[in-house]
Amino acid sequence: MSTSTFHWSCKHTWKRSAKNTMWCVIGCSIGDFGTILFFQLTQIPFPILAIMILAIINGLITSIILETIILIKQGFSFNGALKTASGMSLISMLSMEIMMNLTDYLLTGGAILTWWVVPIMLIVGFLTPWPYNYWRLKKFGINCH
Question: Which residues contact 34 (CB under 8 A, 6 or more apart)?
Answer without folding.
Answer: 58, 62
